[in-house]
Amino acid sequence: MIYHTLGSIPHKRHIQFRRPDGELHSEELFGSEGFSASSSLLYHKYPPTKVSKVEPGPEIKLERWDTGVLRHHHLRTKNMAPGGDPVTSRKPVLFNSDVILSVARPVEPMEYWYRNGEHDELLFIHEGSGVVRSSFGALPFKDWDYVYIPRGTTHQIEFDTGQNRMFVIEAAGPISIPRRYRSELGQFMENSPFCERDIGLPRLPLFYDEDGEFEVRIKKLGRLHCYWFDHHPLDVVGWDGYLYPWTFNIKNFEPITGRIHQPPPVHQTFDGPNFVVCSFVPRLFDYHPDSIPAPYVHSNIDSDEVLYYVHGDFMSRRGVEFASITEHPGGIPHGPHPGKAEESIGKVETHEYAVMVDTFKPLFLAKDAEAFDDEAYPYSWKDVADTAHR
Question: Domain boundaries in the chain?
Answer without folding.
Answer: 53-67+82-234+243-249, 250-389
